[in-house]
Amino acid sequence: MSDRRAAARGDRNLKVGWREGPGIVNLRGDPSDAAFTQGAARALGLALPLQACTSVADEVLRVLWAGPDDWFVIAPRGRQAAFAAALRAALAGTHHAVTDVSSGYHVLQLGGAPARELLAQGCPLDLHPRAFRTGDCKGSHFFKAAVWLWQTDAAPSFELLVRRSFAGYVELMLGKAGREWLAA
């Protein structure tokens, strides 16, 4: 499943694929410190999501709320070093931590009508559209693998931040849970 696969079953198309090496930066800091939040916004071109379980995005970045003082910045492949340097420069003088964690994670993309149903087989979150909408993100698990999950659009499309060490397991479980939608 390292390449994109799609299976058609009537109008129930499922798209599954690993994103090509995204850059991932973990940002820590005090959201009540205006110098921190304003500096981060200048460096990223996006205001940090300060509301629990939300994310913000533009054409280049997605920033996930991961805790009261914790965010993941998902950047295009090879761009994480530039964003990390920009954050460090903009946040100089504030209490913060900027760590490139790209080597420790993969991002899985799931899309199409059966995506919610497939995720629900291994994830306890309520993914119904009234409870989990575009821009929402939450930490959870997919079967026994810890993941961060967010919805990118209403199609629905989802992305999962998966620890590299669990990628093979997540792929195996996707194959088993998605058997009815995935072509061999």
Describe it for me?
There is one protein chain. The chain is α+β, with helices and mostly antiparallel strands. The radius of gyration is 17 Å and the shape is elongated. α1 packs antiparallel against α2. The strands form two sheets. It has a six-stranded antiparallel sheet with strand order 1-2-8-11-10-9. A five-stranded antiparallel sheet has the order 4-5-6-3-7, with helices on one face. Mean pLDDT is 92; it is low at 1-11. The chain folds into two domains: 23-100, Heterotetrameric sarcosine oxidase (Alpha-Beta Plaits, 2-Layer Sandwich); 107-177, Probable tRNA modification gtpase trme, domain 1 (Gyrase A, domain 2, 2-Layer Sandwich). It contains four helices and eleven strands, in the order βββαβββαββαβββα. The termini are close together. It has helices at 34-44, 80-90, 115-120, 167-177; strands at 5-7, 14-18, 23-29, 55-57, 62-67, 70-75, 96-100, 105-111, 137-142, 145-153, 157-163. 21% of the residues lie in helices and 35% in strands.
Order of helices and strands: EEEHEEEHEEHEEEH
Q: Stretches where pLDDT falls below 50 for ≥5 residues?
A: 1-11
Largest sheet data: 6 strands, antiparallel
CATH topology of the largest domain: Alpha-Beta Plaits
Strand order of the largest sheet: 1-2-8-11-10-9
What is the residue-mean pLDDT, rounded to a whole number? 92
What is the domain tally?
2
Approximately how much beta-strand content do the residues carry?
Answer: 25-35%
Query: End-to-end span in angstroms?
Result: 10 Å
What value does the Rg take, in angstroms?
A: 17 Å
Principal-axes geometry comes out as elongated
Number of strand elements = 11
Output the CATH homologous superfamily of the largest domain: Heterotetrameric sarcosine oxidase
Number of helices: 4
